[in-house]
Amino acid sequence: xxxxxxxxxxxERFVRCFVGLAFFGLGISMFLAADLGLAAWDIFHQGLSxxxxxxxxxxxxxxxxxxxxxWIPLKERLGxxxxxxxxxxxxxxxxxxxxxxxxxLLWLRVPYMLGGLLSVAVGSGLxxxxxxxxxxxxxxxxxLSKRGISVRVARTSIEAVVLVAGLLLGGSIGLGxxxxxxxxxxxxxxxxxxxxxxxxxxxxxxxx
Length: 208
Known about the structure:
Blueprint: H1 10-34, H2 40-52, H3 56-74, H4 80-96, H5 106-129, H6 136-145, H7 151-169, H8 175-195
Helix pairs in contact: 1-4, 1-5, 2-3, 2-7, 3-4, 3-6, 5-8, 6-7
């Protein structure tokens, strides 16, 4: 059921994973506070939150656990980072999202959004670089790819489905959606080699 743990530097790996996921949750919370649009999955989470009245952080956790159930027929194996991802990001958003300062001034909201993007990128670099397993959503994509669907098609299809579902549920799309879609990949590419454990040979997985 679980992937074997790496044999070296386990305490450091878990600390990096924990801190990275905290930064990831902080970044999502900053996107929410900026109110300029969210990433596709978070549009879905926000839409569910609006429809159910359940805080978005708890929705993120519930969604993560439900996605892990889809891993069973796909025969994907959990990493400890997978479990931490499913729990911690939503918990951080739950604790922070209603307490970050907000403003109606666009010239302040844009830097807020960009700070959130930077926080997610740094968090991704730390979390991915810990080498403790893929996040629930990326594991779903990887599981589908092993059944003959290309990673590109699997990723695009999943993102498109959750984006449309999120919009139908009332989630927010906007400048932040564009910034995340086109900015997160290049930023993670910058931070990952700098934040990865030195001389690590662990096969890395994606973050969220």
